[in-house]
Amino acid sequence: MANLIGDTARSLGLPPLKRAAGLVTRLLPIPQPLLMVGPGASVRLGQAIGDFAHRKILVVTDAVITRLGLIKPMTDALAAGGTAYVVFDQVTPDAPIPMIERGIELFRNEACDAIVAFGGGSAMDAAKAIGLAAANDKHPRQLVGYFKGLHGPVPIYAVPTTAGTGSEVTVAAVISDPQNHRKLVIADTRIVPRMAALDPCLMTGLPAPITAATGMDALTHAVEAYIGLWSTEFSDRMALAAVGMIYQNLPVAFADGQNLAAREKMALASTFAGLAFTRANVGNVHAIAHQLGGLYHTPHGLANAIMLAPVLRFCGAAIQAKLAVLALRSRVGGPGEPEAELAQKFLDSVEAMNRSLGIPRHLDALREADIPGLAEAACREADANYPVPRVMSRDECEALLREALPKKARPRQAARRKSTTTKARARKAPVRR
Ligand SMILES: NC(=O)c1ccc[n+]([C@@H]2O[C@H](COP(=O)([O-])OP(=O)(O)OC[C@H]3O[C@@H](n4cnc5c(N)ncnc54)[C@H](O)[C@@H]3O)[C@@H](O)[C@H]2O)c1
Ligand SMILES: [Fe+2]
Known about the structure:
By secondary structure, the chain is of the alpha/beta class. Helix content is 55%, strand content 11%. It is built from 17 helices and nine strands. The chain has helices at 2-12, 14-27, 41-50, 63-67, 72-80, 97-109, 121-136, 208-227, 233-255, 260-280, 284-296, 300-315, 320-329, 339-356, 371-385, 394-402, 413-427; strands spanning 34-37, 56-62, 84-91, 114-119, 145-146, 156-160, 172-177, 182-187, 195-198. The strands form two sheets. Strands 1-9-6-4-2-3 form a six-stranded parallel β-sheet, sandwiched between helices. The site of fe (ii) ion (FE2) has 6 residues, from helix 8 and helix 12. The site of fe (ii) ion has 6 residues, from helix 8 and helix 12.
């Protein structure tokens, strides 16, 4: 019953609210960082930061990155300019809260007045959370949601080492709560970094599976921003450019990690996708992926990659015209082809891209028994935040998750028949455009 009421409310009541929120998003000025792009950009950023005469900088990164020596050219530039810094390299995937607490403590003890966020999304988001929590003297949990802090953080500069999350240009910091197995989002326009360096030299050692998963995260940002109801002329331009660049360059960067040109294009595409979704937001793919990340620690990009095609298929007719445009921009179809064919070609190409990148169709960790809880949490997240082109009911979300169940974990025949009936019933629900 509660399910039914929730689903009915979802299909009737939320669109006006979401339209209002979309309007606010359009009007809200979102700062855009100054970008330095190209080989050596992280050094140039270090030199530029030196001119700002900060007292002491907290460099937030992870142990893999320090071990690979990736921060050294930038910290050498800081030192050469006479800027003091301290390195916090305890970040672990998905930025868990206890680690962020240690970062806040170091920030305070060292009396830092700026932060360099250096790494993948986990390091950049940890840095944003550390900065905002320290500025407001609050626990990171108290900052979850929109604009929960009174004060903005000290200046944050970003150097992404994956391509990626786009966190170098977004208003979001995704952190994780290991106690409750949940991912939490802090959103505030003041945590957008002031400057960012897109340096392809830092990405040549990124292992192929991480290149693949993070690249698919960027693709998902672009696609969800483009098909969502809050898309604008600007977000469309960024999203479509990102999709084209990812289709041309992700397979190259995956096959040849040393290819600087492909790495640089991927870094830019990831930033463009970030610029698109920080305005237009993401959708059901992310709503589901965040639950998989919270419960099973599935890498964020991998969870998105697995759920992208099923969610796009679910959206069906509501996004056919947009999928057709994506097919043209990704060059998997040509002008003049019928819209339905183009849309199908784009869908097929997402699955083909996954296959060519070695991304599985199923998620090994996923368990049938967890699906109802995951679906409920995903619908709650989507309802509260995302301007999706087609609202999913809990049953529909469960069915989408079941597509990712590993074969050995599939429900027995009888249970499957029941879920198919529910699916058929759900399919009759009206599709909103
Ligand atoms: N803030 C946002 O707008 C936003 C958007 C999307 C995702 N996210 C969040 O970002 C996190 C994921 O970030 P991610 O996908 O970049 O992964 P990550 O930061 O967790 O890094 C993944 C792994 O790659 C390694 N790594 C990173 N750069 C490397 C390099 N250059 N060479 C070798 N190894 C390298 C890291 O050490 C780590 O082991 C998730 O928590 C996700 O929810 C945030
Ligand atoms: Fe993402």
